[in-house]
Amino acid sequence: MKARRNESSKKPRCGGAAAAWLLVPLLVLIVLKTDSLPHLARLRETIVTQVSVETVSEHELRSKVSSSGLEREKIWQQQQQLVEAAKFKDAERLPKTTDSVAEAPPSPASSDEIASHGVDGIKDLKDEKNIVAMNGEVDGSLRNSDVATPRSSKLSCNFSSERMDVCAMDGDIRVHGKSATVYVVAASNDSYRPENGTVTIRPYSRKWEISTTMQMVREVRITTDDTAPQQCTVTHSVPAVLFSTGGYSYNFFHTMTDLVIPLFNTAREYDGHVQLLVTDFDRTTIFKLRHFLGKLSDFPVIDLDADDAVRCFPAVRVGIESHKELGIIPALSRKGYTMKDFQDFLQSAYSLKRAWATPANRSSGQRPRLLMMQRRKSRALTNEEDALAAARDVGFEVVVAGPEVVKNMAQFAEVVNSCDVMVGVHGAGLTNLVFLPRSATVVQIVPWGEMKWACWSAFRDPLPDMGLRYVEYEVTADETTLKDVYPRDHAVFTNPLAIHNEGFGKMWSIFLEGQNVTIDIGRFTGVMRQIYQFVTIS
Ligand SMILES: *[C@@H]1O[C@H](CO)[C@@H](O)[C@H](O)[C@H]1NC(C)=O
Ligand SMILES: *[C@@H]1O[C@H](CO)[C@@H](O)[C@H](O)[C@H]1NC(C)=O
Ligand SMILES: *[C@@H]1O[C@H](CO)[C@@H](O)[C@H](O)[C@H]1NC(C)=O
Ligand SMILES: *[C@@H]1O[C@H](CO)[C@@H](O)[C@H](O)[C@H]1NC(C)=O
């Protein structure tokens, strides 16, 4: 298909207001970046120290990868060390390889071309083969096939989604990470033929944020111009999926909606037999998602940006498939995946025990578990202790999770899965609802200021597909700390939409960053009682 790219004319699905809303995390980045730096540095230190003590062979690792729990985590870490170690080795070896590749005749090699290089040319070719054979990495039959079946690869792209561009290719596909180039060798006549033989994709699923998020995402070139294809230095027997962690993956909502779900959509069908290739490699994100990634792929993730190898694959997908916020549209999924499939996958990746939340039996003294997602800097509950006491009095067993607890994703996934009800003021922390058992209840506290529409698209609309129940608690003018800052006749109270219209920054600083919530305990208790009745039996 020959779809033309026409990004600039595309509009975000929910109109201009939504577009503004989606910028929020960008601003959050600026705030958070300073916070996260020490953590990142520490992480880097650990990984680098571990590399030197690495002893496990890759084969051993691969055979162990199917095990679960803590052992899996350890193995994953070792895998990452191997990636690092491999990179150091490559660094020593690659210059030599590259030299000989540069002098080798272009492929497909005709006898004329070899002849024109004379005896020296043939010698160079042999030397190169020796290097390759020593490494045991290049599949000779692949290169022979260049000669035998010249038009064997296929490229197809889809640029019609407003969320992402994707290209799929199979046959003889070669990836050079350092130059972010994917070579489709000998593209067949029914392939997508980009103008000038090259098409570029930013492999992150927020395509409509062209001038913001997507600027943080490296462009990957896909070329069908194979007059001088690179020689393989590493041959993989499994397909690859290439994506970027360069967007705003430090925000957990975006990690889930831009990365985790699209990755599931794209790579799950290979049942582990898939190589993940990451550009804009963000160590923190990769480490945070290690259980998920380890379940998705049997192989260590490859950091492409510094990778000077030419990696050859039987098939490659560039870009990951995103359908909507925090959701999957089965009709758009090649394999017809649903959010239920996604939840099952998460439950298995994180060894979660409860697929369903079953009602607690009051007569036998069971208490339903309620998880309170805390926020500290903004949209915090100023009278949280009272709110928690109210929930306890109603009959809940209350579990409290602050930002520091949430950081350990695997541990926290188990905590979430053990609960029946999740309560929190609108914010990225609520994304952890993906770990709740089905039929659990989510209570979203919507801050003051006509914020409903934004809150709905993130944490209301996606819930039915996950089998979760939704309860909304909208903060009144009496419950926001904005009343200590603005008089009641101010537009903040009389016409919040006017504030939205004054610009995104203003809306953001007043309604999202500028308020805490002092909950009306009487009203809150009433809501808690209703939910309690619903999640218990006698
Ligand atoms: C391309 O993607 C769009 C939207 O994601 C989808 O509706 C369409 O069916 C896809 N086209 C092909 C040929 O797969
Ligand atoms: C294709 O190449 C021509 C000539 O080099 C150039 O003018 C044109 O802009 C190129 N088109 C694209 C889409 O890059
Ligand atoms: C709840 O517990 C009581 C007392 O243990 C028991 O008699 C009753 O059958 C239980 N109800 C259900 C629905 O299991
Ligand atoms: C909200 O509460 C936190 C924690 O007490 C405080 O640091 C912050 O300044 C408060 N923000 C507003 C807008 O009142």
Polypeptide structure, described:
The protein is an alpha/beta fold. Helices cover 40% and strands 15% of the residues. Helix 2 crosses helix 4 and helix 12 packs parallel to helix 19. The longest helix is centred in the first third of the chain and has 35 residues. One 2-acetamido-2-deoxy-beta-D-glucopyranose binds next to loops.
- Which secondary-structure class do the elements indicate? alpha/beta
- What is the domain total for the residues? 3
Bound molecules: 2-acetamido-2-deoxy-beta-D-glucopyranose
Can you summarize the main beta sheet? Answer: 10 strands, mixed
* Strand residue percentage: 15-25%
Uncertain stretches of 5 or more adjacent residues: 1-149
Q: Treating each run of at least 4 consecutive H or I residues as one helix, how many helices?
A: 19
Could you tell me the number of beta strands? 17
Euclidean distance between termini CA atoms:
60 Å
| Fraction of helical residues | 40-55%
Shape descriptor = globular
Radius of gyration: 26 Å
Mean pLDDT: 78
What does this entry show, briefly?
By secondary structure, this protein is α/β, with parallel strands linked by helices.
What topology does this entry show?
Elements: H1 15-21, H2 24-52, H3 58-64, H4 69-103, H5 111-116, H6 118-135, H7 140-148, E1 154-158, E2 166-176, E3 181-185, E4 198-201, E5 220-223, E6 234-235, E7 240-244, H8 252-267, E8 275-279, H9 283-288, H10 290-296, E9 302-303, E10 310-318, H11 339-349, E11 360-361, E12 369-373, H12 384-394, E13 397-401, H13 403-406, H14 409-417, E14 421-425, E15 441-446, H15 452-459, E16 469-474, H16 491-494, H17 496-501, H18 504-512, H19 521-535, E17 536-537
Parallel strand pairs: 3-5, 6-10, 7-8, 7-10, 8-9, 11-17, 12-13, 12-14, 14-15, 15-16
Antiparallel strand pairs: 1-2, 2-3, 2-10, 4-5
Bound molecules: 2-acetamido-2-deoxy-beta-D-glucopyranose (NAG) (4 copies).
Membrane topology: Single-pass type II membrane protein
GO cellular component, one term: Golgi membrane
Subcellular location: Golgi apparatus membrane
